[in-house]
Amino acid sequence: MSYPPHAGVEPRWPIRLIALCSAVRKGAGSGCPEPREELWVLLRDSLLLAITREAARYRGIGREDIHDLASAKALELVSRAERGEWDPTGRSTGEVVLYIRSTARRALLRLMDRRRGQTSLDEADVEEVAVVGRGGLPGAPDPPPERSAETQEFLRGLIDCLSRLRERARTVWVLRGIHDLSTREIAAHPQVGVSPGNVDVILMRVRATLRDCLGSKGLEPGHLPPGSFTQIWLAMSGLATSPAGAVEEEHT
Amino acid sequence: MTLDPEREPRSHVTDDDLLDLIHGASSTERREEVVSHLLGCEACDGRFRSIVRDHERGRALAADALTSAPAAAPGAHAGAARRAWWPRFAGWRAPLVAALLLTIGGTWMLARHGPGTDPAARARPEWLPQVTRWGNLRQAAESSADSIVLVAIEAYERRDLRRAESLLRTPGAVGSYEFLRRLYLANTLEALGRSEEALPELVGMSWMLPEPWRGEWDWTSMVACARSGRMARADSLLDVLRRRDDAIGARARALGNDARGGR
């Protein structure tokens, strides 16, 4: 395992965020959903991480609270960006990161205020962390896992079987089998865009296809081995279009 | 930038690295470094998976979430027009904002918790069978902790769930009684709508329980997984339950046939 040096490496997602804010402001009222959705997703992702980190200092904050806070705050920021009330243009990446993190912190403190009776750590004890390069887990890293040949064979087989699926069917399976999204969420995903009923039919067919495909390789369907997600993610990222010989039919 | 482990402090990838990677914002060089680390680090791979899952869920929710907050009108950001009418409504700001947030919140909750079509998501918690059906349970109690489990089950059967929960929170039972305590506690928490809290109670070897408790353990697990968004695990459990040749299997099959087959 190699250790990426991150001291001094500035995050680059704030650059994308600034560009999206500008696009959303210019396109306000145009009816074009893409930059708004992308901005909301990026804001939500960054707020989720910031709130999760901050919430570790408090008791009584659940996962659902964190998701609700991040989603609502992201929505508020998108609206403010559209109205020109929030414009990060000209800000440094560090300033954008700091803004997101202080927004997350304020949102969390307001939630805690509403929940009187819940115990929180003394705010004065909450340490301020550096803007850039944080988030890494310090100290001795885990040793590289000794993945068995069996695990690697399973992963190779699974990736090969997935690569034979049509893109939408593959996406549906990944969203359910790896990310645990509900049928409703999968149906609403921009890469899927079918009815919930259709998602269930696609899933049923994909499972049967995968079971047959893995079986033909002498493999049994099973849970994804720990530490193997990145391999699947990389493989799926590289499979942008459906192969000519796709074996799975998804028509209903 | 070159990787020099001798000079650089050893650390894992940062949240910012992972955000950059997911949003395609990393430089080529940095992407290679981060991916190389992820491939060899089980802990970071797990964090990455969790962040990608939240990201994909966000993508799925984006359209609904933004529909509840319509795009600003053209020129709204220019300020002049807004300044002309906004002061007139200054006194209404707080109620307007509150109403907007309530609307957004309501739509958001509906989008998240509304009925879906997953067979597992259609499953409902079931009351556990009367304990009297299980023969010599009382005679088999060996300790005061076992007896507390029995008192808790009596409270459960009276549907006094708060008392049942508080009694079932007392550990110390042994063997099958301990698994029974966890099953009843999980089922009680399910009935109280607290699936996330129920799940940790259902980890372990349910084979220590006789039937029908073992099947009820799997059913309770399946419902808890589905209600807490762990749909892949719920599907797998539902698949197992469907193969049972008893009332629990029939209950599972009655949910529909559109999730046949494991992951």
Task: Please explain how this structure is put together.
The complex is a heterodimer of chains A (252) and B (263). Chain A is built from nine helices and no strands. With 252 residues, chain A is mostly helical. Chain A is elongated. The radius of gyration of chain B is 26 Å and the shape is elongated. Residues 1-9, 72-90, 109-116 and 258-263 of chain B have low confidence and may be disordered. The chains are: A mainly alpha (252), B mainly alpha (263). The interface between A and B is large, with 95 and 89 residues.
Biggest interface: chains and residue counts?
A-B, 95 and 89 residues
How many angstroms separate the termini of chain B? 41 Å
Main beta sheet strand tally, sense and closure of chain B: none
DSSP strand count of chain B: 0
List the helices and strands and how they pair.
The complex is a heterodimer of chains A (252) and B (263).
Chain A: H1 13-26, H2 34-55, H3 63-82, H4 93-114, H5 149-163, H6 167-178, H7 183-188, H8 196-216, H9 229-238
Helix pairs in contact in A: 1-2, 1-4, 2-3, 2-4, 3-4, 5-8, 5-9, 6-8
Chain B: H1 15-22, H2 28-40, H3 42-67, H4 80-85, H5 93-113, H6 119-122, H7 137-140, H8 144-157, H9 161-168, H10 175-191, H11 195-198, H12 213-227, H13 231-242, H14 247-253
Helix pairs in contact in B: 2-3, 8-9, 8-10, 9-10, 10-12, 12-13, 13-14
